[in-house]
Design a protein that fits this description.
Length: about 350
């Protein structure tokens, strides 16, 4: 089969690799029908995630069809259309039993495209399939459903819920990329007083406005002063960091009000300064987190009911073998206007070779 393979920082290739096979009784093999690219994949290519070994197939988000299952799999069977979650859960360890699947110590957590071969391929092996794939209703389109593999649960759990957004809050979202936009869309479910979006790119600020931001502001337009002006000098109740660079994190800590919350969602590749000399007296709560995906069933029901604006976030589509072009477009989002790219759907005649 073909797959997008990581060959060290700055290098990847769409190339032939061996077909995946059942290795454990809880495994499923999924034919990939739709896949997307995450900002985390770009971090890997930059060298920000050094534990990813050269030779790994990238990707941790997909929709596809089950073509084979191990003897212990009970909840899905060949022919089922499923969402492949970015998080794999053993279901047995302490953290899984608490619903903290992202911290799984039984061989799960974020492993796809990280510690084992991932989803940017014609086929993917999914360990612990009973807890790591979700059957999809026919009414949910694949290019929408794939956004539930990572960005929507990440934004909702690590941003909105960890930030404790409440009715009447002022919420500032720093970074209007895909996860930041999903944070805006899901924060609206809690009826905040206003949502302020901050970004460098005018196209992303336009998208933020479309998805529910009440105020948008460029990084060069004094966003901290704007937040202060809109809150009588107090600062935002909740600030969601959705970029992953030191400057944006430090901006978030300056924007938050006393007693407020900073929810860090961005993937950081460099140290950021925590200005405790200013923050110690402000009663500020700072949270970090890897998504657990406990909210995926809820979000899936909301998507099936038409309550999540997923379709408008997909700006570019490609055939599966257009992976290298898709990476180029996604990595140059400021120039291309890319928000979320989706690949697949046109290659079924190629992807059926394992279904024998």
């Amino acid at each position: 089969m073909k797959a997008l393979v990581f060959h060290g920082p700055g290098h990847s290739a769409w190339q032939d690799v061996p077909d995946p096979a059942i290795q454990d009784a809880g495994d499923a093999i999924v034919r990939v029908d739709a896949v997307t690219i995450c900002g985390t994949d770009l971090h890997i290519l930059k060298g920000d995630v050094p534990e990813v070994p050269s030779g790994t197939v990238l990707g941790h988000e997909a929709v596809g069809e089950i073509v084979e299952v191990g003897s212990d799999v009970r909840t899905v069977r060949p022919g089922d259309r499923v969402l492949v979650s970015c998080i794999t859960a053993c279901g047995r360890c302490r953290f899984c039993r608490e619903g903290s699947y992202g911290q799984c110590r039984g061989g799960g957590g974020w492993i796809l495209g990280h510690l084992i071969n991932g989803t940017q391929a014609q086929y993917v092996r999914v360990p612990y399939a009973d807890l790591s794939v979700y059957p999809l209703p026919g009414a949910v389109d694949s290019k929408d459903a794939v956004l539930l593999a990572d960005i929507f649960p990440t934004a909702y759990e690590v941003g909105v819920l960890n930030g404790r957004v409440q009715p009447g809050d002022t919420v500032a979202v720093v970074g209007a990329g895909p996860v930041g936009l999903a944070a805006i869309a899901t924060a609206r479910l809690f009826s905040p007083d206003r949502i302020i979006a901050v970004d460098l790119a005018p196209a992303r600020l336009d998208a933020a406005k479309h998805l529910g931001a009440d105020v948008v502001v460029g990084v060069g337009e004094e966003p901290e002063r704007l937040v202060a002006d809109l809150t009588d000098g107090l600062g935002a109740d909740v600030v969601i960091e959705a970029v992953g660079v030191p400057e944006s994190f430090e901006m978030c800590t300056r924007m938050v009000r006393p007693g407020g919350h900073v929810a860090n969602v961005g993937v950081h590749g460099k140290p950021a300064t925590l200005h405790l000399e200013d923050l110690w007296i402000k009663n500020v709560t700072i949270t970090t987190g890897l998504v657990d995906t406990y909210s995926t069933p809820t979000l899936l029901r909301m998507m099936a009911a038409g309550r999540l604006p997923a379709s408008s976030m997909v700006t570019h589509t490609f055939p599966l073998d257009g992976m290298e072009e898709a990476y180029d477009v996604f990595s140059r989002a400021a120039d291309t206007g890319a928000l979320k790219v989706v690949l697949g759907g046109q290659q079924h005649d190629v992807l059926t070779v394992r279904a024998t």
